[in-house]
Amino acid sequence: MTSANKPAPDSEITLRVNGKPHTLHIDNRRTLLDLLREDLGLTGSKKGCDHGQCGACTVLADGRRVNSCLLLAVALDGSEITTVEGLGGDGEEPHPLQRAFLDRDAFQCGYCTPGQICSAIGMIAEAAAGHPSQVTDPATPSGRPVPLDRSEIRERLSGNLCRCGAYPRIVEAVEDVIR
Amino acid sequence: MKSFGYLRPDSVQEAVEAYAAHPGARYLAGGTNLVDLMKLGVERPAVLIDVGRLPLDTIEELPDGSLRAGATVRNSDLAADPRVRDRYPALSQALLAGASGQLRNAATTGGNLLQRTRCPYFQDLDKPCNKREPGSGCSALDGVHRDHAVLGHSPHCIATQPSDMAVALAALDAQVELYGTEGTRRLPAAEFHRLPGEHPERDTWIRPGELITGVLLPAGTAGVPSAYRKARDRASYAFALASVAVVLRVADGVVDQAGIAFGGLAHRPWRARHAELALLGAHATPAAFEGAVDLELMHAEPLRDNAYKVSLAHNLALDVLNRLAPAPAAA
């Protein structure tokens, strides 16, 4: 095998991040999280464990919540990414869930908060689309929106750890926006 | 992470050809396990072949009444599919008992089957591990091994297979569909993973360069009552200490179909053939269930610190069997 046969260690990709297109030349090793934080200066998404175990890096990729620390940016070419910075849209007003987190004092140090909020927004959409969770009654009809009681919210947000233990307030903030 | 080249073939055929041109490459789909292992230095591929966008992302009904899930169907989509929920509830429940919402949105059917053990010594480059570096030794044998195997382990490796999904597939008589340079073949899901023996570096019977293209759920277990139950250190978002998938059909009080597989106990989903044989034709009573489960778990060889798994698995299996068995008709 000659080195000429080996594909290049870097690539050019285009991502839409919070509605804006970005064309970037990246090392193939670049994760989406590092691209957002280091290349685009979007430091809202946090690096907690960097191994997909804490959820602090959660963003929406093509509308679905994912751990940005475990996604290689090169594999996301053409994707639409929404980070915590983009949730409020163009205006100055925060997203209703961001407002609810403030109103409910749903954090202490705040490090997990952007991931919690992005995860909750993805989770609310999943339940509305009829996705069950581990605690959903198996008799619940398929394809219909799943009502989110407290046990559903807790289970569906279990991929987001909060070392301060603000979980009760986080659940209340989510309840505020789904009512 | 070691530098790597990236290829994104447009078809299964091109993917397999790309591997042939770059032996030792890794197929990338959701990446939730592979990228993590690359960060840790456990995996050091020179080339990644991205199969995540191949047209393998559909769930379709086949003429014989089986259901075929493509290899890149996301775990969350497979768990939510109404046909899977209605016909193969153990599979939906197993998927939902694994990982987190974020991970299930990225992880694929094929990738889930190929995830590596979470044995901490396998992930730690400073420690001997026969799975990571054949011949170097097993650190878990005399180390921290409360999460490790009680069935089918060897002096070379006591790691467990971490997938919940694979346990349900084994109990449901699913088949894994593979494509390679020699064409398409199928393996029973219950036989897809290996026991460690002298070669713990090989997790499965997949051949180098073969690609998982899908999973077949047979007509024979469609609609048969099934369930999955998992015990872990916290209520959610943790790997199984022990788990069980049960497929059980009872007619006139007699068991006429039984599929039982344990997770968290072995290097592969542990299909409980001894228990199944004992149950077939037996009256579906709690005593019969207990006798059958004991017949299986008497083969367990617990390690210094994980004998608790045997009674845990026993209790999980009895709970699910009794729950699935219809209440006896009033005399």
UniProtKB/TrEMBL annotation, chain A:
- The UniProt record lists the 2Fe-2S ferredoxin-type domain at 11-87
Q: What protein am I looking at?
A: Oxidoreductase
PROSITE patterns cross-referenced by the UniProt entry: 2FE2S_FER_1, 2FE2S_FER_2
**Pfam families reported in the protein's UniProt record:** Fer2, Fer2_2
In which organism is this protein found?
A: Streptomyces filipinensis
Q: Which GO terms describe its molecular function?
A: 2 iron, 2 sulfur cluster binding; metal ion binding; oxidoreductase activity, acting on the aldehyde or oxo group of donors
Q: In which pathway does it act?
A: Alkaloid degradation; nicotine degradation
Q: Which UniProt keywords apply?
A: 2Fe-2S, Iron, Iron-sulfur, Metal-binding, Oxidoreductase
From TrEMBL, chain B:
Query: Where does the secretion signal sit in this chain?
Result: none
Keyword match Repeat: no
Quote the PROSITE patterns the UniProt record gives. Answer: FAD_PCMH
Q: According to the lineage, what is the superkingdom?
A: Bacteria
KW Nucleus (keyword) present? no
Entry-linked InterPro entries:
CO_DH_flav_C, CO_DH_flav_C_dom_sf, Diverse_Substr_Oxidored, FAD-bd_PCMH, FAD-bd_PCMH-like_sf, FAD-bd_PCMH_sub1, FAD-bd_PCMH_sub2, Mopterin_DH_FAD-bd
Q: GO MF annotations for this entry?
A: FAD binding; oxidoreductase activity
Alphabetically sorted, this entry's keywords are: Oxidoreductase
What Pfam families does this protein's entry cite?
A: CO_deh_flav_C, FAD_binding_5
Residue intervals of the FAD-binding PCMH-type domain: 1-222
Protein name per the record? FAD-binding molybdopterin dehydrogenase
Q: Lineage of the source organism?
A: Bacteria, Bacillati, Actinomycetota, Actinomycetes, Kitasatosporales
